[in-house]
Amino acid sequence: MQKKFTIQISEPWNFTTKDNTNILTASLIRELKYTSHYNEPEAAIFKLDKPFKYEGILIKYLLAQARYEKENIRKFLEKKTFKKNFMINILSITEESIHKVTKESLINSKIFIGSLKKT
User: What 3-state class would DSSP assign to 13?
Assistant: First the structure.
């Protein structure tokens, strides 16, 4: 069973979906480890329960990673309270390309700031 999360977008401050909310719900589908420097995952990919359009592109997936290098995403994936200050990359990818996401592929992605909690 997939873990469910609530994601709250705080920047851009005026972000809302067509439902007029900045609160999203999603399932954790993959943890990513970019380098061999860390033993723990450095990011997590979430599949949105309700995809939304942003700048004309349908968004189905988000990638969350700690905003600060010394923080670890794994410990926050177990919290049931909002943890602030995650970088949230908006991914315009397909189901087939989820396993091809790399740190380099995020260079041109839009970045939001937000928080997440396990539900």
Answer: coil
How many other CB atoms are found less than 10 A from the CB of residue 81? 8
Q: What is the pLDDT of residue 95?
A: 75
Structural contact between residues 45 and 101, judged by C-beta atoms closer than 8 angstroms: yes
Sign of the C-alpha dihedral computed for residues 41, 97, 104 and 16 taken in this order: negative
Domains: count for the chain: 1
Rounded Cα distance, 24 and 104, in Å: 26
Residue 90 makes CB contacts below 8 A (sequence gap 6+) with 54, 59, 62, 109, 110, 111, 112
Q: Which domain holds residue 18?
A: 4-118
> Tens digits of per-residue pLDDT, 41-83?
678 889 999 999 888 888 899 988 877 766 667 666 766 665 6
- pLDDT on residue 22: 93
Distance CA 44, CA 33 (A): 9
| pTM reported for the whole predicted model | 0.83
- Tell me the one-letter amino acid at 67: R
